[in-house]
Amino acid sequence: MRASVHRLGMAHPGDLSQLAALFDAGTLDPRHVCAVIGKTEGNGGVNDFTRGYFTLAFSALLAERSGRPRAEILDSVPCVLSGGTEGVLSPHYLVFAREAVEVAPVTGQKRLAIGVAFSPAMPPEQVGCRAHVDLVVAAVQQAMADAGIDDPADVHFVQVKAPCVTAARAQEAAARGAAVLTAESGRSMAYARVAGAFGVALALGDAPAARLTEDAMFRDYDLQSDRASISSGVEVACNEVILLGNSAGWSGDLAIAHRPMADALDIGGVSAVLGDLGLAAAPQLSAADAARIHGVLVKCEPDRRGALRGNRHTMLDDTDINAQRHIRGAVGGLVAGIIGDGRIFVSGGAEHQGPDGGGLIAVIARV
Amino acid sequence: MRASVHRLGMAHPGDLSQLAALFDAGTLDPRHVCAVIGKTEGNGGVNDFTRGYFTLAFSALLAERSGRPRAEILDSVPCVLSGGTEGVLSPHYLVFAREAVEVAPVTGQKRLAIGVAFSPAMPPEQVGCRAHVDLVVAAVQQAMADAGIDDPADVHFVQVKAPCVTAARAQEAAARGAAVLTAESGRSMAYARVAGAFGVALALGDAPAARLTEDAMFRDYDLQSDRASISSGVEVACNEVILLGNSAGWSGDLAIAHRPMADALDIGGVSAVLGDLGLAAAPQLSAADAARIHGVLVKCEPDRRGALRGNRHTMLDDTDINAQRHIRGAVGGLVAGIIGDGRIFVSGGAEHQGPDGGGLIAVIARV
Amino acid sequence: MRASVHRLGMAHPGDLSQLAALFDAGTLDPRHVCAVIGKTEGNGGVNDFTRGYFTLAFSALLAERSGRPRAEILDSVPCVLSGGTEGVLSPHYLVFAREAVEVAPVTGQKRLAIGVAFSPAMPPEQVGCRAHVDLVVAAVQQAMADAGIDDPADVHFVQVKAPCVTAARAQEAAARGAAVLTAESGRSMAYARVAGAFGVALALGDAPAARLTEDAMFRDYDLQSDRASISSGVEVACNEVILLGNSAGWSGDLAIAHRPMADALDIGGVSAVLGDLGLAAAPQLSAADAARIHGVLVKCEPDRRGALRGNRHTMLDDTDINAQRHIRGAVGGLVAGIIGDGRIFVSGGAEHQGPDGGGLIAVIARV
Amino acid sequence: MRASVHRLGMAHPGDLSQLAALFDAGTLDPRHVCAVIGKTEGNGGVNDFTRGYFTLAFSALLAERSGRPRAEILDSVPCVLSGGTEGVLSPHYLVFAREAVEVAPVTGQKRLAIGVAFSPAMPPEQVGCRAHVDLVVAAVQQAMADAGIDDPADVHFVQVKAPCVTAARAQEAAARGAAVLTAESGRSMAYARVAGAFGVALALGDAPAARLTEDAMFRDYDLQSDRASISSGVEVACNEVILLGNSAGWSGDLAIAHRPMADALDIGGVSAVLGDLGLAAAPQLSAADAARIHGVLVKCEPDRRGALRGNRHTMLDDTDINAQRHIRGAVGGLVAGIIGDGRIFVSGGAEHQGPDGGGLIAVIARV
User: Which residues bind Mg(2+) per the record (chains A, B, C, D) (predicted)?
Assistant: First the structure.
């Protein structure tokens, strides 16, 4: 197998022209597309419709070009979008593709491997509960198998998109006599993210299984996976997984690395992940090195204690700008400055995903 | 003379308790305070009242402790505040003080020198015009004299706070038969910033005098001063100047350096200014080195061409978040990450202040 | 001819399920749909993508159900959306349809008539100029003909969607040696709205032709049409017109009326337009009377002098919330309260559309 | 006793010039000022510093003019501010004054009576609990006595400003072994508002005492007082009460009335309260009648079920604009339109204060 990653820009959230051009030019076969991770220019909140807009336009294009029905595409090609291109961040999306190739992998060289999985549909009363965690564990294991990765140490980034509870779903559950953890969408998304993080941590062995209990959620923040990137939204009914790692069974010229970020000022974490890929920022990557990068994926969080290395921050008490918008802009500015490129996927809501108050970074680059 | 700079935090824009504590402890004599530059947690726009709130609380405290009338303080101690602590930025203010000391300066060692000046009150019809530029030139020269600096090369940062036109002032001018450039406050502030930048450039010789004409404003962006930091507001009626440089005539242990920033991703400019002060970020300052820093002053701007190194940014078309808030958060995140501290003064509106699309950075540190 | 207007709700900007249901039930023939005016839940600014999202979903649905190509639908069925459902406003859209019927109109009874028109594509250098005004005049006349209305007095509401200048379009013009009035999108939209308003005023005789010159734009605010509702956006290349009036040549049970609103507090204008249709609010419409209403269309504006009946308002100086969002929420709250229904189309940017500082209201109801 | 109410405008949150002018002119004796309720132009959220700015400027002015220490004023003159002048709302404040007069009240005529009270300081662990309710009951009773009102039916509006929990207060409580209901400021404010509403309802007999239990909070929304207006903030340590009613023991020419508002579209409630005072809006008050009004006080709430009379609203899911800002703008637009004046005090957060999804209105007018 061989993986490819195309990083494409867009003029607006419905603009798939760069992808269409790749199809037109024969550079990319529509049937090889297996996943999308993208950054659209919405607010990243409940009322961010740039994600739905992109998904509609993407699925319509892929349906037209691949000859597959739109519904089938929505059920088999995970499309995970994070709204919010604060500051220097540039709207863009990563198209992940894979194809069987006859070239044998070079012995001893691990290359980027991609796996996807969809859990069964999940009833709303399971959102954020142990049953949710178990569904994610199974889906991550399935995505590992799909990627042909045996050793959890070879996994470097797991993107999960998990369902949340809505008012309508809560009522449907109540009608069946089932109770949801919360009917408030925003709160429910946080529960879903934590269940997803616990699921990834369990599947990959990032934290002791005995401690990953419901009681530990939102409490024991040392329990975390620095390879878990979880988002949640009303638009999915099951848990969608995109798993990225390196494997000796894959050929190609891409590899992935990841590192935790201790806090929003942890420039050291960024340097380290670049170093893992043989890239040196001094203090910025050279243009040649920057051109080797195919994708940068960051998860971060405004420190919930209201201070950063002893100095008060104001993100959590701001009624004008959502805290996640604040942190994405700041961490995006830092990472973009080191790499010299604004095409950084930065997503907030990093509970139990990397160190408390920090997060994680993964980079895909040509080796 | 000896200069000192105290960097103080605040719990809210009216909280001067850390300054009061310095007075209480005898660490700082209220009579030595000569200027304040601060970052309050407002939105940085026309309706940002955190600046007025701070100024009221500061002037009341200084009046009480120094025995000088509040009005006299407002007319002699420049208090320049920039609203907006986006992302990791921490609300804080720099208190500049100076005192005559008997210690002779060490030969060959230039140390931080501080000068202040107030232009005469300026009628609204002069805002943004040549007459405005001339007033700033004179005030900068006066501040240089106040700081005891002869050579413009020894000046590293000039903060100007310039008046703007308001609807009321425009009407007053019209009643006298005078016409203002614009009666729109926001637009008028931009005019005032450019006139201020041209004034600093002229006074310091940063651009050819013959080219610094009214026609060149908002047009020839290569005409700029990377030592000019201009803000404008309804709260002043004259041009207030705080000038910072190094001088052999001053003792103490502080020095200042500055560098241009080519764009919002110019991490190299940040490294360079730290290097000028003997500080090395690799990739972040050590805690010991960070503790040597007494103030970081940054000016920046969302690139008005809508792209950054070829990638589209969305700051200028965002109806939800003002463009200046975006850029402050991003550049603040970058600089804070390198230094390891969120107490960075970052101000937007950098027309002709540093390179087009970029800005400048100045750092005060113990040597 | 017979006109119908369906007022439909949506769960999100891509939700056309209520329209699909009308098609499914045979209540509405897709081939009869001639125009859409809708209110989506975006911010109403440059970066409001809810309009594009709705348009994509709408045109895809209509293409599928009518068998016409999507491109043809976009070029023949005007779809005018205003973003922003501030306060009590409810996301909804009006589907206008017309069909030839054999029933002869009742003598002496004028009923709702609908006409649409598209001007030729307009080069960017014409935006906001006299040539723009002339194109709108011709399009309005064409729409009157399309509606079968001879007497301008029978026209009650003209919705125009006009192109604006973008950076790309300005560069294209410059390459041809042509100059645009402004390359700034937001400013260009205002120019386009004023040209549209002047065009409608000329076509309908709402102001003296001799005074409707370029010089009068943004200046002589007594020149206005209280039947003109103009929006502008990057998404169109020509001027699209939806014209609504009453005609003896149309049958059906709907009629339309309109009134100016003197300012944002002009509850009298709202009462008057309801009275024109035989509806009395005392102080609110009865449920039965409210059910007779098929559409409410409002245009309004924050008073540019910064005060309302002598009391200062803060809409124009708010860096957190755009002024148009403020005024839509306030006027929407007033109109919705009188009618008892939040499905009100309220659009800002009312320069020369109704009295200065006010706007207009049109209501479609069963008679 | 005789009560007076001065409604004053402000150019910014620190502008007390109109009050100073009343003092200068001898129109108002500083020693008679007993309370202030005002609407400042902040965002109304946790980071709204316009309230603190106004309070600092007000207390400094009153201290200077009355000769009383600022601390004493803060502890005896309640100053309750609500941030947010969305839409047509105009920044203003009501200065309540009372003085002993020799004129005997006219028999049979009840006139505006004002009472104030401060509960003892309340520890954070009591916020939102039964103990909090009891403190409010006692303070309301004390304010009734202060106003000389015996019959709860004569009370028309009770403004309570209650403390909330902050992170620091929660830690202080924890250090004493006490537990707070929540350490999250926003959530704690809601608890405090509900405790305040229950306290007023108990004190005035607006709901059965047996049902006003902790379990009923946020649940049994039919338990409410349409005379309770509660706000909560970090700036107070005890419960401050301003009670307004009519009393035969007071002279003067002012009276107050109140009505519930069933929902945000309840124009009928507004008409009714005006009718109670002999004022008729048809559809708007005449200028002469509007001039009789000295204050309008409104409490409202975005319907937490996400719909208003069957139509979806978007206030609760908006990440860009806080829901309270939305509802204030809409209800403010409605009430201002009926009265013809933007000087309306509108405050959000109306849990158990008036009908669920609605709120209340009180009007003070000359009779």
Answer: 301, 350, 353-355, 358
**Residue A234 clears pLDDT 90, i.e. is over it:** no
CATH number of D2-99: 3.30.1330.170
Locate the domains of chain C by residue range.
2-99, 111-244, 253-366
Q: What is the pLDDT of residues C145-197, one digit of tens each?
A: 999 999 999 999 999 999 999 888 888 999 999 999 988 888 899 999 999 99
Q: How many CB pairs under 8 A join A and C?
A: 39
DSSP state of A344: -
Of the candidates A322, A364, A315, the residue with the CA atom closest to the CA atom of residue A344? A364
Smallest CA–CA separation between D309 and chain C, in Å? 7
Q: Decide if A2-99 and A111-244 have a common fold.
A: yes
CATH superfamily for domain C111-244:
Cyanuric acid hydrolase/Barbiturase, RU B (3.30.1330.180)
Chain C residues within 8 A of B322 when measuring between CB atoms: 319
- Phi then psi dihedrals of residue C273, to 5 deg: -70, -35
Per-residue pLDDT of B179-200, as tens digits, reads 999 888 888 999 999 999 999 9
Residue C35 has pLDDT above 90, yes or no: yes
Q: Do residues D245 and D149 lie in contact, with contact meaning Cβ atoms separated by under 8 Å?
A: yes
DSSP letters, D215-280, are GGTTT-TT---TTEEEEEETT-SS-EEEEEEEETT-BSSEEEEEEEESSTT-HHHHHHHHHHTT--
- Per DSSP bridges, beta strands A33-40 and A92-99 are antiparallel
Which residues of B does the annotation mark as catalytic? 161, 231
| Topology adopted by domain C253-366 | 60s Ribosomal Protein L30; Chain: A; (3.30.1330)
Q: A33-70 burial, b if ≥16 CB within 10 A, otherwise e?
A: bbbbbbbbbbbbbbbbbbbbbbbbbbbbbbbebbebee
Residue in D closest to C261 by C-alpha = D337
Question: Complex ipTM above 0.90?
Answer: yes
Q: How far is A48 from chain D (nearest CA, A)?
A: 8
CA distance D326 to D270: 19
Q: Which of C293, C237, C288 is nearest to C112 (CA)?
A: C293
Q: In the predicted model, what is the mean pLDDT of residues C91-112?
A: 91
Task: Identify from D41, D50, D312, D346 which residue to disrupt to test chain C contact, counting C C-beta atoms within 10 A and taking the largest count.
Answer: D312
Q: Which residues of chain A neighbour B311 with C-beta distances below 8 Å?
A: 9, 90, 92, 341-343
Query: Catalytic one among A4, A161, A185, A299?
Result: A161
Answer yes or no: A231 catalytic: yes
Which residues of chain C neighbour A49 with C-beta distances below 8 Å? 12-14, 41-42, 49-50, 53
Phi, psi of D101 (to 5 degrees): -125, 155
Q: Averaged over D302-325, what is the pLDDT?
A: 95
The residue type at B335:
V
Residue D111 bridge partners (DSSP): D247
Confidence of residue C285 (pLDDT cuts 50, 70, 90): very high
Mark yes or no for CB contact A47/D320 under 8 Å. Answer: yes
- Cβ A14–C50 below 8 Å, yes or no? no
| B202 touches B352 (CB < 8 A) | no
pLDDT digits (tens, 9 = 90+) for C291-301: 999 999 999 99
Which residues of chain A are at the C interface, by a Cβ-Cβ cutoff of 8 Å? 12-14, 41-42, 47, 49-50, 52-53, 56-57, 60, 320
Alpha carbon distance D306, C29 (integer Å):
32
| Look-up of token digits 């939105």 | B43
CB-nearest to C319 from B47, B306, B314 is B47
> Which positions of D are annotated as active-site residues?
161, 231
Do the Cβ atoms of C89 and D313 come within 8 Å? yes
Residues of A in contact with C14 (CB under 8 A): 49, 52-53, 56
Mean pLDDT, residues C9-38: 98
Q: Quote the pLDDT of residue A260.
A: 98
Q: Tell whether the model's pLDDT for residue D67 goes beyond 80.
A: yes
